[in-house]
Fold these 2 entries.
Entry 1:
Amino acid sequence: MSAAADRVALVTGGARGIGEGIAWRLAEAGHPVVLADVLPQVAETAARLAAAGHPARAVTMDVSNDAQVAALPRALGDWWERLGVVVNNAGISPKAPDGLPRPVAAMPAEEWRRVLEVNLTGAFLVSRACIPPLRARGWGRIVMITSQAARTRATIAGAHYAAAKSGLMGLARSLAGELGPDGITVNCVAPGRIATPMAEGAAAGVNDRMLRAIPVGRLGTPRDVAEAVAFLASDGASYLNGATLDVGGGSFMP
Ligand code: NDP
């Protein structure tokens, strides 16, 4: 059995978009994959993977729901102890009806809380739940999907999203320090503009405008992000810990 075949990969928000792309890439690397998503279509996504010969399972769950996250060991069953890779990808980026993010002055507190709950607290809950099996095997990879909104001033996402994704980077650094001694690394991937249903929800012209600021001359694909995640999940990345990989075609350069 290859090393990857004994390292189950859990991908949150795996029903579609970037999460689905990550699941396919990790499956191609040999990992059994678990897709966890609020969208019921997650079962069909897992079925497509399985039909292509990749061991895959689906869990319908909300990453911000304590009880549902606490039920992960039961949901994964005999795969729980084989968990090796955790990708915190589930996220939301609410917009006003005109497709633009609401400014802080017009942002309902409930919208602020929900974005923090899903994008940040969800990653905390899932990561915390997954520590025991990773620690038990003395090897693990946790990858946070943040955003360039956490790297530079956000223009197409709201302040809640920028705050949550920035918080995710702080969470990753803290976890990287806590878990490094256990053989578990924690890193971030910060995508630029990726063509997914989330990006398609933006106001007219936004993606065209962003395209002009991307040196490689195209929007990113889920596969572009997945390649970076697959590298971080590999043995070759064992000395990257607390790092952030920018996957934006050069639209942001630190
Ligand atoms: P999508 O909206 O296409 O996919 C995200 C998936 O996560 C959806 O299936 C969504 O379900 C699911 N999800 C939402 N909330 C929860 C929850 N509480 N629990 C479990 N699953 C949930 O987004 P992308 O694929 O574009 O984005 C994936 C990640 O990448 C996100 O974290 C996003 O912030 C980040 N990102 C995306 C960029 C882009 O340009 N697309 C750029 C930078 C970062 P539902 O549809 O029901 O909400």
Note: The chain has a mean pLDDT of 96.
Entry 2:
Amino acid sequence: NDQELQEIYDFAVQLGKDAGEMLMNACRRRMQGSGATTSVSYVEKASSVDLVTKTDNDVEQFIHTSIAQKYPSHKFIGEETYSAGASRDYLVDDSPTWIVDPLDGTVNFTHLFPMFCVSIAFAVGGIPIIGIIDAPFLRQTFSSCRGRGAWLNGTQRLPLIRDPVPPLPENAPSGCTFACEWGKDRRDTPDGNLIRKVDSFVNMAAERNGRGGKGGMVHGVRSLGSATMDLAYTAMGSFDIWWEGGCWEWDVAAGMAVLEEAGGLVTIANPPPDPTTADIPRAKLGGRLYLAIRPAGDSDSETGRQSQ
Ligand code: IPD
């Protein structure tokens, strides 16, 4: 019921903030240290670009313990618990489930690049209905609860940029910002080669609108190093489109909740359908390839993008 949901949401927001503070404390220790203490040691998981630090594990344990104490009957899925050997059937089903990435953007964290965050989602029926993204270095907390809006720092309703121009298909990719991630798979497969994907996307805009012609180009391509932060900024309206192949549930669950509550769309359809039609196949947790589209915004907004 409503009150129960509110309680879970309040608990999740506080949990995200406390966990974010743990991440930030680890950063502070490094920034105030000297020599070896300023770098962070990590262990490679599936490959040399798949990292885990002690902080990932400590924060996951803190979140897991807090949830188990407060909601012992709820299921818990965490990136590090899974990586430590939990089986495939450990992944999302219909029961009330917490889906957690204690540190999304671990590579950024190890390089002290501020784009990292705690990502906490609460899902029922396989659908994330609460999303908390705490990015402590940026002092940004994104949160959402189904039916109650998506928020930045609890006060600013998302999207912040209410662009009246629908992002797809007819107006994009011209003039848009496109975000994508490198993931952890470096194999050069036809499906997985990001450089080719980005190239075709950028060229699609150029071809549709005239190469180098006025107003026809993609404004920028971004890769933040955190799928969750990409989704948060798509919810803000800063990114028009985000794409990644090879995601896990914990990479996208909280971001999906926030973006969808802001009015954006996450789909597994490829190529993307017309977002102005009603029957867009929504992504269900459990897929690997995700594409997100920012909220369409409203037509009488004054904060929309100007073409001149
Ligand atoms: C990773 C980041 C990265 C994305 C990977 C994720 P992690 O999560 O979100 O940007 O490309 O697919 O696994 O390992 O930093 O928690």
Note: The first helix runs from residue 2 to 32.
